[in-house]
Amino acid sequence: MKKGFLALTWIGFIWYIGLVSAVAQQLSTNQVNYQLTYNTNTQIYTVWVVPKYATPNANNPDANEFGATAQVSLKVPKDFVIQNITDINGIWEKNPIKLGTQSFFSSAGLDPNYLYYVIGKSSSETNFGPFVNDTPVALFTFKGNACYGPVGILAKSDPFVAAARSSALLNTACSFYSRSGQTQGGNVVPLEQFVEKLGPDANCNPLVDLSLTVATSNQQPGLNGSTTLTISVKNEGTNPASGVEVAALLPAGMSFQTYATATGNYDAVTSIWTIGDIPVGQTVTLNIVAKVTQTAVQYFTAQISKANEQDVDSTPNNNIETEDDFGRTCVTVPAPICPGQIFELSIPMGYTNIKWFKDNVEIPGETGLTYQITTPGTYRFTASNVACPTQGCCSYIFYEGDCCAKTVCVPFSVKIIKN
Ligand SMILES: [Ca+2]
Ligand SMILES: [Ca+2]
């Protein structure tokens, strides 16, 4: 009994809309599209009407657009529950029934992963304000119970539209009617203005692809010399990124002088570059001027530490150097070596097929993670899974000091083990 009553209620509601739409088959020359967007910060979806015309026009001499009936239909993941429908322009149905599971549709062969909401607008006339070609006007917002994937405006060609029409005589397609839709006067049949959904579906979990690189203006600045460290972050993906931050920590052997960026701010105390939004295809950069205060090799690393969206191939702040959101560069300050001294160069774990070089000549038999230096020269290594110097390799340079030249390559540290 209760089920029957519920069914009557929703059938009654949409049937009303169906009646209006059923007699309005012809498309107006003043047309609109609908668009749905999602704000990852507020987790709010917004439905927009996007006119393909402006007010005033031949049908509507008013500066504003006025409209009565409209219908916005949504295709949602099956577990998505629409919540908090909030009016912006017009009075919209607040508790629409989820459609698609009713017995009417069981034989329609619809994709069981999706269900549908049909949200009708009150027939009282609404002042939408001025309409400008291609400029969205918000209709209402809503939230979801959780993120299950993309939510979209129901396309005219979606099989659900035809199934609802044939199975239950329901018009579930989107519709929009306004003063601009048709000429004034007489008993005219309202002309449909809705054409199609616009843009991609709204994704509550949009995948982005951010990448980061670092570079240095001067790899051998000399002791107490300056170098400019450039950090670049690119949005290589197909979705806008937001809430982006980068951790750019200077090593002990570099002291911060100043920074410059056109995007956000760098906090030299926390070492965080707060970027915010990065549109698709855009690259943002930060330049840090640092003074090199120690000899040997100073490594500068930076990584994306935060973003609102999930990245397709990297995770913020996980310190994994092989990911595309991590960058490394280095500077070399030649160090003195004295006769009898031994310096040990060591490479972090994870590098394979290591070869050591002195003055660009391979050192036979040296394939280990460490190498001991006893004489002046320029020392570096290669590995099959790292490309030097683009991935932050510097040669260690040792020169014969008063008592005791030069170098740098890739992430290795040096310690004196015999004096
Ligand atoms: Ca990435
Ligand atoms: Ca990472």
Oligomeric nature of the chains: single chain
Shape: elongated
The rounded distance between the terminal residues' Cα atoms is: 94 Å
Counting DSSP H or I runs of 4 or more residues, the number of helices is 2
The poorly predicted ranges are 1-13, 15-24, 404-410
**How many distinct domains?**
3
> Portion of residues in helices?
under 10%
Radius of gyration: 32 Å
Mean pLDDT: 88
Bound small molecules, which ones? calcium ion
The percent range for strand residues is 35-45%
Q: Main beta sheet: strand number and arrangement?
A: 6 strands, mixed
Write down how many β-strands occur, each being a DSSP E stretch of 2 or more residues.
32
Structural class: mainly beta
Report on the architecture of this protein.
Helix content is 7%, strand content 44%. The protein has helices at residues 2-22, 159-168, and strands at residues 27-39, 44-51, 65-67, 70-77, 82-87, 98-99, 114-120, 126-129, 137-144, 152-153, 175-176, 192-198, 207-208, 210-216, 226-235, 241-249, 254-261, 265-267, 272-278, 283-292, 296-306, 310-311, 326-333, 335-337, 342-346, 355-358, 361-362, 370-373, 377-382, 396-400, 406-407, 413-418. The protein is mainly beta and 419 residues long. The chain has 3 domains: 2-198, no CATH class; 207-331, Sandwich (Immunoglobulin-like), CATH 2.60.40.1510; 336-418, Sandwich (Immunoglobulin-like). The longest helix has 21 residues, at 2-22. The strands form 8 sheets. Strands 24, 26, 27, 29, 30 and 31 form a 6-stranded mixed beta sheet that branches. Strands 5-9-2-1-12 form a 5-stranded mixed beta sheet, with no helix packed on it. Strands 4, 6, 7, 10 and 11 form a 5-stranded antiparallel beta sheet that branches. The chain is elongated. One calcium ion binds at residues 209-211, 311, 313-314, 324-325.
